[in-house]
Amino acid sequence: MKTDYFKEAFNKVSEEKRNKILDAAIVEFAEHGFESANINSIASVAGVSVGSMYKYFDHKEDLFLTIIHYGVDTLKTVLGEIVAEKVSLDVRIEKIIGAIQRYSREQVHLTKLYNEMATESRSSLVWKIVSEMENATAGLYTYYIKEAQAKGQVRSDVNPGYFAFFLDNLFIMLQFSYACEYYKDRMKIFIGEDVLEQDDLMTEQLMKFIKGAFFYQ
User: Fold this and answer.
1) Averaged pLDDT, 96-112
2) Distance from CA of residue 48 to its chain's centroid?
3) Residue of 127, 126, 80, 78 lying closest to 104 (CA atoms)
4) Top-level class of domain 64-214
5) Whole-prediction pTM value?
6) CA distances from 143 to 83, 121, 157, 161 (A)
7) CA distance linking residue 155 with residue 213, whole number of Å
8) Are 48 and 3 in contact (CB under 8 A)?
9) Which pLDDT tens digit goes with each residue over 57-73?
10) Segments making up each domain of the chain, as ranges
11) What is the pLDDT of residues 152-200, one digit of tens each?
12) What is the C-alpha to C-alpha distance for residues 135 and 41, in angstroms, rounded to an integer?
């Protein structure tokens, strides 16, 4: 792991200890937000001293930026495996939906952290990290839509940039809907209490919605 936000001492601790600190910090920031997150609480949960925390990070901001960077890298790895596959646009989209469903459950607090940082008043702290992923994602989605248009699979009247933006918004909302309580409850109002047990149906219906907008029928 390499960023400009922590001291070299953090790289020298064992992977197990480093992961305990990162996991504790992710939960604390995701549950309490930046302002209310407490370094003492993070240290206690991770089983390290507060003094050690300041040997690893100069400020709480540096720890926050470190876990944002870690979260973005984790999500990029998940999506990167899918976009590297040579498949059609509809298959790629369906795979991304499945990955979102799995990732949001396996990485609940990272997903909550993503939601938290999207509304965080200190958003200038994270934009330089997140924008790297957003720019890459926008470029990829736009490219694959154009590629599908060239193959006659996607409607010619679709604007790739706009539709890449619409598609990404669907993915973000789906991600929050599997991890964040407000969005879970909102999804249940529209679909039903058992929606979280019906991943296949969610995928099927969302694919119908997307295909209706993108693809020749």
Assistant:
1) 92
2) 28
3) 78
4) mainly alpha
5) 0.87
6) 11, 32, 16, 9
7) 9
8) no
9) 999 989 988 998 888 88
10) 64-214
11) 999 999 999 999 999 999 999 999 999 999 999 999 999 999 999 999 9
12) 34
